[in-house]
Amino acid sequence: MSTLTEVAHTLVSNGRGILAADESIGTMSSRLESVGVEPTEENRRVYRELIVTTPKLSDSVSGIILADETLRQNLSNGQTFPEALADIGVLAGIKVDTGAKPLAGAPNEKVTEGLDGLRERVGEYRRLGATFAKWRAVFTIGAGLPTNRAVRANVHALARYAGLCQEGGLVPIVEPEVLMDGGHSLAQCQQVTRAVLRSLFDELALMRVDFDSMILKPNMVVAGKDSSEQPAVAEVAQATVDALRDTVPPTVPGVAFLSGGQSPEVATNHLGAMQNLDQLPWELTYSFGRALVGPALDTWRGNHGKWDAAQKALSERAVANAAARAESKG
Ligand code: 13P
């Protein structure tokens, strides 16, 4: 049995990254509907089977984050998803939060829920084959936002989640996402990202979370998607690395970025540009959802005749991101 620290290192090393396929039933259903697929439990299962059976996925993917529903489903060959992943050398993860809900006293801001009963669920997920977990908090940039209230409520929940996971034997992926929505500048995103990460690591320390047995999954520092001033790739890379260097303890094994609505190519370019900056204490990798699986979903559209083409589309994104990582060692 690997220790939590070993699992954390496995997730972020050897040039590989993490694939996020843990969309909630609601989100996955809308993604399926957007490509003309009926949002049934079976179609969600088939789509996840397409992902995990993609040939050679384990060359570039170290772990796949699954949703609760998927963890309880089987592939057509009868294997559970964690069993199928174990066979190809990929770790199974589980999203354990139950979603972001409106925060009382903070209009337009949300707090992520899911702490009640989490200790018991962590035990169950371990028995079902998961070795790591994910919890996502969201922060909105706007006039007077994010508020201290929303930042503190969310980092508190993230830290309690991380502590419960480590106690129960799962490596926590801690995901504070500063959203791209809005017209804010790169500098504003950097300032908010720094403040959120600083507050997060204070809280993680308070809750006695072991930094060497967790993964940080932050946003990249980008301008808001409605901003007319979009920074160059090199500026995003530098702004992101500077924010991380100021806030992330060196004992954290890895930083695995979310894609957050960036196009697949742009997310990959940003990741590649960061590898060329100065020596960093942590591995920098990907934990993309949309930027990895978007093209595959768009190719598949529920058509069995497009199965192989869709897997090829996923494979291409995974290989491109692994190659972007390798730019560091060049
Ligand atoms: P995106 O890469 O699509 O932002 O998803 C990553 C994720 O896991 C969100 O929680």
Offer a quick outline of the entry.
Its EC number is 4.1.2.13. The chain is of the alpha/beta class.
**Sequence of strands across the biggest β-sheet:** 1-2-3-6-7-8-9-10
Helix-strand category? alpha/beta
User: Which residues sit in consecutive blocks of at least 5 with pLDDT less than 50?
Assistant: none
Rg calc: 19 Å
Biggest sheet architecture: 8 strands, parallel, barrel
CATH architecture: Alpha-Beta Barrel
Distance between the termini: 34 Å
Overall mean pLDDT stands at 97
Provide the domain count. Answer: 1
Main attributes?
10 strands; 46% helix; TIM Barrel; two-stranded antiparallel sheet; binds 1,3-dihydroxyacetonephosphate; alpha/beta; 330 residues; eight-stranded parallel beta barrel; globular
Commentary on this structure:
- The chain has a single domain, classed as Alpha-Beta Barrel (TIM Barrel).
- Helix 6 packs across helix 7, helix 7 packs across helix 8 and helix 10 packs antiparallel against helix 11.
- The strands form two sheets. It has an eight-stranded parallel β-barrel, surrounded by eight helices. Strands 4-5 form a two-stranded antiparallel sheet.
- Strand 8, helix 9 and strand 9 form a beta-alpha-beta unit.
- Helices cover 46% and strands 15% of the residues.
- It is built from twelve helices and ten strands.
- The protein has 330 residues and is α/β, with parallel strands linked by helices.
- The mean pLDDT is 97.
- The structure holds 1,3-dihydroxyacetonephosphate.
- It is an enzyme of class 4 (lyase).
- It comes from Saccharopolyspora elongata.
- One of its GO terms (biological process) is glycolytic process.
- Its EC number is 4.1.2.13.
- Keywords: Glycolysis, Lyase.
